[in-house]
Specification:
The chain is mainly α. Helices cover 77% and strands 0% of the residues. The chain contains 23 helices and no strands. It is globular.
């Protein structure tokens, strides 16, 4: 690996002023928003000009890839729909529509457009990458891994190797995923990949480390990502979560205030609420409640439009913060049936059903989650608790015991619940 030592030594400087957004971050956002506004004005002035509509769709997609806001992806979809409806055999619209739909978690629709793009441009590597991405989003991990491996065999690039890493991770092969992602960074360095792409890869390594309970390793990776790209808000969010785990609530609050100011994603608002609660005090409790309410309202609003938005995040929010367990269970089953069938959908549905006292329904879903990905410690702990409650004590105790060896990978409350499950099930078959 060609990783410069200075990245690790100076990474902390990227977080020197957590209460202020880096200039690069706000400038990139402003440029994209200005481009969207200019493209929108041009398209409105010439509504029959498909090239201008396509440019507007492209500008909206660029903005959406920075903000990851479903509303920005929806604007991209609206512009590209007009292009596609006018010229369904054009090359760009199906490709762009697929990514706009993925951004809104409308994966089945995205796959249909991805396949159309593949029919029209079967020899383009970008089309193969698109098919790979959509299959991964749907939870079709075997298909995604096969395509990613084919891409990597054909050409060693950051794009091919990072996709292979994500597919390996989705199958529970964490060691292979880490190796492939590090190789992606190496390939990106040799091929002059943009800093933003390298930063994204480092942030994924940070996520992998967090899932293993290696919080120090995760901090190193996320800080390195910010050194490469100060606008990597995913890395800032994860660093705030690490600070919360470490008891540095005020640092986490400061980081999340800056992140939410530019990117008010529901999951970020929830983490801001968690940070306020951890700081403590009457004012912080009030501000935490406001952050939770805003995040919840945003997630609920998305249920009334095309697709189901952040449905899984909403379920997990309710389960962690005292929401209606029955409603959470019903929504989790909708996510599993209507949105995607990855291991995370099975894990969330099993846990929601367990919390709603529907244990017999939860057990097979927990087992399916483990079959699809047995490497995630949090899922392992939850599955073990579910199995113990369902009378499968030997299997359940084994899973919980293994998970607790990596208790830093998940919430303290869940670790305590797992320990209680072990204690209460001791001495029986």
């Amino acid at each position: 690996m060609r990783i410069v030592a200075a990245i690790l030594i100076c990474a902390a400087s990227a977080l020197a002023h957590p209460n202020h957004l880096p200039a690069a971050e706000t400038e990139a956002l402003d440029r994209c928003r200005e481009e969207v506004a200019a493209s929108s004005a041009k398209a409105a002035a010439a509504p029959d000009n498909l090239a201008l509509r396509a440019s507007l769709g492209d500008a909206c997609l660029k903005l959406a890839r920075i903000t990851t806001d479903h509303a920005d992806f929806a604007r991209a979809e609206a512009a590209l729909r007009k292009v596609y409806d006018a010229d369904p055999f054009g090359e760009w619209a199906p490709y762009g529509l697929a990514y706009a739909l993925v951004g809104q978690h409308r994966f089945a629709e995205a796959l249909a457009f991805a396949r159309r793009a593949a029919f029209q441009q079967p020899d383009e590597p970008e089309t193969l990458a698109l098919i790979c991405d959509v299959h991964l989003s749907l939870g079709n991990t075997i298909e995604s891994r096969a395509i990613a491996q084919r891409m990597a065999d054909a050409e060693i690039t950051l794009e091919s190797l990072s996709r292979l890493s994500l597919a390996q991770h989705a199958c529970g092969d964490m060691d292979e995923a880490v190796v492939s992602m590090r190789e992606a960074i190496e390939a990106g360095g040799m091929l002059d990949a943009p800093p933003r792409s390298l930063a994204w890869c480092r942030s994924m390594l940070g996520d992998f480390a967090m899932e293993r309970g290696d919080l120090d390793g995760a901090r190193v990776e996320h800080e390195a990502a910010l050194l490469l790209d100060p606008g990597c808000h995913h890395a800032r969010w994860q660093l705030a979560r690490i600070d919360l785990r470490a008891g540095n609530a005020e640092d986490a609050r400061g980081t999340m205030l800056s992140v939410v100011a530019a990117f008010p994603k529901p999951v970020y608002l929830v983490t801001l609420g968690d940070a306020y609660k951890a700081v403590g005090g009457a004012d912080s409790e009030r501000l935490a409640a406001e952050a939770y309410k805003t995040g919840e309202d945003r997630m609920l609003a998305e249920l009334g439009v095309d697709g189901l938005g952040h449905i899984r995040e909403l379920v997990e929010f309710w389960l962690l913060h005292g929401g209606d367990a029955g409603k959470a269970a019903d929504l989790s089953l909708r996510d599993l049936k209507e949105v995607r069938q990855d291991w995370g959908a099975y894990d969330t549905a099993a846990w929601a059903l367990y919390k709603a006292a529907r244990v017999s329904e939860a057990v097979p879903l927990a087992l399916e989650a483990q079959l699809r990905n047995s490497g995630d410690a949090r899922s392992q702990c939850r599955a073990g608790i579910v199995l113990i409650a369902g009378g499968r004590k030997i299997e359940g105790r084994r899973l919980v015991s293994l998970a607790l060896l990596r208790r830093d990978a998940f919430e303290t409350a869940l670790a305590a619940e797992g320990a209680d499950a072990l204690k209460s099930s001791a001495g029986g078959p």
